[in-house]
Amino acid sequence: xxTTILCPVCVRGHATTSTTxxxxxxxxxxxxxxxxxxxxxxxxxxxxxxxxxxxPQPSEQSALYAFxxxxxxxxxxxxxxxxxxxxxxxxQWLEHQIGSLVAGGYSKRRxxxxxxxxxxxxxxxxxxxxxxxxxxxxLRV
Length: 141
What we know:
Elements: E1 2-6, E2 14-28, E3 31-44, H1 60-68, E4 78-79, E5 86-87, H2 91-103, H3 108-112, H4 118-135
Antiparallel strand pairs: 1-2, 2-3, 4-5
Helix pairs in contact: 2-4
């Protein structure tokens, strides 16, 4: 669904929402159990802009609210579709989401505009630099 909410980062794009049915393994009494939930996300329609909500949101309205208020790290619980329990995403979820943006080649300056944690962002950017160095020859024969 396209909206008229202007992107607070690039001020060129607008908010678009998407929803997915997501399944993830979570520990439950020492055993991994598959949990399913409906997740909503909002992102900028400008493909050059990294603005997006990082945590799954329980509704389209909450995804748009987080996007509009520049609260891309808003963490709200989602409902397990099988048991009805409320589940809160972990910090590993955020690290995975940031990693996909870092792999996409966005600059540190662009990613810092999103309010991402410096320690996680720094660690992932260093890992990206090391991977790029591995591909470049240091000495020529």
